[in-house]
Amino acid sequence: KAGVTQTPRYLIKTRGQQVTLSCSPISGHRSVSWYQQTPGQGLQFLFEYFSETQRNKGNFPGRFSGRQFSNSRSEMNVSTLELGDSALYLCASSSLPSASETQYFGPGTRLLVL
Amino acid sequence: AQTVTQSQPEMSVQEAETVTLSCTYDTSESDYYLFWYKQPPSRQMILVIRQEAYKQQNATENRFSVNFQKAAKSFSLKISDSQLGDAAMYFCAYRSARQGGSEKLVFGKGTKLTVNP
To answer: Which of A45, A67, A93, A105 gives a 20 to 30 Å CA spacing to B94?
Structure first.
């Protein structure tokens, strides 16, 4: 079974631009979560989707948004980029949004904002 | 809110030796899951081991085992017969099992493990 895939792997943007990151979960997985990883703040939860519905959202400004499609693929969007948005964005999938289900991570998208 | 603390920013071990990484957590919940994830230089997060809080028996996966002390809220990872490929950042993570609660992972800051040949 193929793992979680994320595209693009690397991205360079300038302040004020917007960006869209994509995540394709493991086949059969319907729950997708997003995390931001920075050297200062570590790994922080962004949001979680299941059946095209956002179930939970972390403590991030409204510039961060996401969605999930009927095939369980998910996208996250960051508008009006700031320098502090430079980070590794990780996507994780699980079969169901249950605590007992292990989340499997993708390789991440490294975003650099100049 | 739950918190996870990894008090050792860096650790080193000689190849073939044993090393233990520490993790403590704070929660008022009784039902939860604990995880150790490994992040090598490739940045891919890889699940190493998981522990269900309701299980008293410590989880083991080949050379990896945990010492889960629920009352002390401690969850350490022991790596036996360390290999060069074990070098990575190791993250301890907590996940609530509360019905209707968030299934998000709460991570510690990580421990960077170096394996010396």
So the answer is: A67
